[in-house]
Amino acid sequence: MQTLKEALATALPDIAQSLPTTPEKHSTETKATHSPKSSLWPLPAKDDKEARKLWRERLFQMEHHHPDVENLMQWGEWFARRAITNNRPGWVLLEGKPGCGKTRVARRVSRFIRDYAFDAYEQFWQSRGSLPRVEFRDWPAVVEQKGDDYDESIEDLYAADVVILDDVGAEADTYKSGLPISRLRSLLSRLERKAVMITTNVKLSEWEKRDERVGSRLTAANRFSAFGIPDYRPRLKSAP
Ligand SMILES: Nc1ncnc2c1ncn2[C@@H]1O[C@H](COP(=O)(O)OP(=O)(O)OP(=O)(O)O)[C@@H](O)[C@H]1O
Ligand SMILES: [Mg+2]
After folding, report:
1. What is the DSSP letter of 120?
2. Run of H or E including 105
3. Which of 65, 168, 206, 209 has the greatest number of CB atoms lying within 10 Å of its CB?
């Protein structure tokens, strides 16, 4: 059967010449395998529960499955999906004891969003005119910086679309100056419209005691409490 363009080419050759050729259908799968950067797996359809579960497991590679580990991964997925599609990106607070896998999830989410956005640039981000900026930061290392170094880090965070702050609350206030918490307060108030993921060992009730406004912003986030997950940090074995 003739295509519309072929039919037109016979009848009206000039018009047919100016018509664009049919664009190839976008296939994330082909794109993903062809991209040298990509170790990626396309986001599965929202309603395909089985595919989503497999996707999560491949992305986060959490070998140990306490029942809450699945939920921790689900929140990682929720965040990544929203950040990538720029569809009502929200805040996620992952709280839990040391070694439960918060940083692992946060790091992988960060890498995934960056790589995926790079691969699927045309699909998702064309309208923005630039790739999304993703900043993953170990918060204690940032907040303990001095002067210009701190200011530069903060400018990077303000300029980002997706901000992931790891280990918030583990910072030391060596001089009992209150500086770390006031820095956190002012940072959080300026990140309100961005996609923000925060991991912490500190319980929400403790945050409320430390600072009301920080507590209030963290309360407003989608919160996943992973305190039930055990410590999976591999033990350093002593020499025989
Ligand atoms: N479910 C899991 N399966 C396998 N390994 C895991 C799992 N969760 C965490 N790990 C491993 O345990 C170690 C600690 O994990 P991670 O650093 O993510 O913990 P954390 O919650 O960030 O701890 P902290 O509060 O001390 O920062 C890492 O080596 C991580 O890869
Ligand atoms: Mg951590």
Report:
1. T
2. helix 102-119
3. 168
Give me the residue spans of the domains in the chain: 4-21+68-238
DSSP conformational letter for 60: H
Ligand 1 in contact with 228 (CB < 6 A)?
no
**What confidence score (pLDDT) does residue 86 get?**
72
* Mutational test site, ligand 1, from 137, 138, 232, max ligand atoms within 8 Å of CB: 232
Instruction: Give residue-wise pLDDT tens across range 46-83.
Output: 899 999 999 999 999 999 889 999 999 999 999 998 88
To 10 degrees, the CA torsion angle through 69, 53, 116, 96?
-10
* CA gap 240, 235 in Å, rounded: 14
User: Quick one: CATH architecture of 4-21+68-238?
Assistant: 3-Layer(aba) Sandwich (3.40)
- Reduce the DSSP state of residue 205 to 3 states and report it: helix
Mean pLDDT of the chain: 83
